[in-house]
Backbone:
């Protein structure tokens, strides 16, 4: 029986929080807005996405345009990031346990592959890039259908509340991680199947949940 773990990329594998802040600063200045300091910016991570944008003075109607401008800038800088400590060992252990690995990300596939090669993390069977940041549930369902994988053989790992919500909509168990963008309180409000604070805890949690299914 094939077992799969689907990973988010930014904030789960790659530590890109500083890049997100740099992109925010660049866009805010280009629009003549006052720039928050990084501590204030990251303090918003305990709020749902809609409330964060409201704090930045961004209306829902302007959100699609802002995302179109922000993503290309963000993708250009990702190769300046590093993987989270312990992620390399986590992925290697999962592969040794005969678990198949995939990435579903809004980032570009070629950028992700370059990052993985640069950091000796080439353990993934499938990488799906440039997906909508608001359409992951649909992408997960398409992934399962295309590769004929039963939902009970899959587990999703992500760092944001929208990751948890998407996996649950797709009927896939999900582990939320505490080293990315969203705070623990926000993540747990979405009721993930489990929550881990360090990559070292992730393998044991994944294998336990898979055994339970």
Residues:
């Amino acid at each position: 029986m094939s077992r799969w773990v689907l990973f988010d990329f930014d904030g789960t594998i790659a530590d890109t929080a500083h890049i997100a802040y740099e992109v925010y600063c660049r866009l805010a200045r280009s629009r003549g807005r006052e720039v928050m300091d990084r501590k204030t910016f990251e303090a918003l991570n305990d709020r749902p996405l809609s409330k964060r944008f409201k704090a930045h003075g961004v209306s829902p109607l302007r959100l699609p345009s802002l995302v179109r401008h922000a993503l290309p800038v963000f993708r250009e800088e990702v190769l300046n990031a590093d993987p989270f400590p312990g992620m390399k060992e986590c992925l290697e252990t999962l592969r040794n346990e005969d678990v198949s690995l995939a990435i579903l990300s809004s980032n570009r596939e070629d950028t992700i592959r370059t990052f993985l090669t640069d950091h000796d993390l080439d353990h993934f069977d499938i990488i799906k890039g440039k997906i909508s940041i608001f359409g992951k549930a649909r992408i997960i369902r398409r992934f399962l259908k295309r590769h004929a994988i039963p939902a009970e053989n899959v587990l999703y790992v992500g760092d944001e509340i929208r990751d948890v919500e998407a996996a649950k909509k797709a009927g896939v168990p999900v582990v939320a991680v505490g080293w990315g963008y969203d705070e623990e309180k926000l993540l747990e409000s979405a009721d993930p199947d489990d929550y881990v604070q360090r990559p070292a805890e992730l393998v044991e949690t994944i294998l336990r949940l898979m055994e339970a299914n």
